[in-house]
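Fill-in record for Polygalacturonase QRT3-like.
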Amino acid sequence: MELRKTQMAMPVCLAMIMSLMVSQVVFAEKYSGSMSPHDRKLAEMQALKASLVRRNLPALVSPPPTPPQAVPGPRVYQVISYGADPTGKLDSTDAILKAMEEAFDGPSHGVLIAGVNDLGGARIDLQGGSYLISRPLRFPSAGAGNLLISGGTLRASNDFPVDRYLIELNDEKSKQQYIFEYITLRDLLFDCNYRGGAIAVINSLRTSIDNCYITRFGDTNGILVKRGHETYIRNSFLGQHITAGGDRGERNFSGTAVNLMGNDNAVTDTVIFSARIGVMISGQANLLSGVHCYNKATGFGGTGIYLKLPGLTQNRIVNSYMDYTGIVAEDPVQLQISGTFFLGDAFIVLKSITGLVRGVNIVDNMFSGSGNGVPIVQLDQTKTAFEDIDQVVVDRNSVNGMGAKSTVAKGSVDGNGTSWAVDFNPVLLFPDLINHVQYTLVASEAGAFPLHAVRIVSGNQVVVETNAPVAATVYVTVTH
């Protein structure tokens, strides 16, 4: 309104100025005959000035303002605007798929890894709603990257396929090595309704699953990671049944919370509170740190972490908490388990498939049990005995209420005679595998200097003998 008033006033002002100038010119011409020379010159100058002002008048008129250019809005796809029902009463599958399709088809900001478009950090916002899903949520095809899905709940319908996942990063038709890159799933709750699983990440690169709660998955996986590279699962909670331990139905827990079938992945600061297997690993170079497993007690047939890749394990389990459930490793090669707390008689099993165990470090852990002497590390040689054993270190573990096992042992024995025997079977992990012996004989009698030597090293026993009877104490240290 103010701009319109200004535009209307400008012609009026200009007309007044021009009228004044013309009147001055007329005045000068009318009275030039009766004027003095000085006044006549002054009037002529005023007339000249008026003519110059008239020629320059167009410069006084400002050009019309340039309209502002439209600025593109943020790349946020709010699913309710596509027809999704945040109350969870109506099926929202098609609406969310439409949002995913539009995000996928949005403007590209270049390329990430070959074949994957950079979507510029586009966001699919679930707007805090709870959405009923009847079939998997998938992108139209391979090739999306730099995108976030966050902020709501996905619940499987009663007819959701039992062999599928609520969100699937997958494209069976693609021939690319990596079909998605830098997809982030954050602040989501997945209720699988005891049908299928929650998330499948297939042939994807640098995927983040952050602050997610996954529950009621069926006899399948909560999260499946297959092939691909560098999927990071962190700050999340997974359980087939919602419980905080001591559940009466614990014996019937099934499924696997996290199944890592690829390399270079990480599970960190994550709680697994119900499932038959907490984490199943069949790929190399994975890291588990800060993982708390109380998914199903070992006594009920549960396993906290199962390493199912005999012959080339190359995995690390550090600073974690195995709560009444343990770790099983098949033919482990290059396996590190350290800084982990084992509670409730939880233990580690080395399971022989072909009889191979190499480069295994089980060190600096804490074990707490019921006082029944359950060994902290056990060998399962049901299929075949371990025969190829090298660089295995089980040492420096703190044990309370369980049976200590180690590859390094110390013992002593007092006696008066010519033979001292020390039995290491209660402590040493492998039978009949002593490779190094160090001992000291301390005679109790002053002036006694008998000759002595190790005579027998067999069956995890060490025998030291002297050439003459003597009262002495023998201290022995052995290693596998």
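KEY FINDING: The helical segments are 2-30, 37-56, 93-104.
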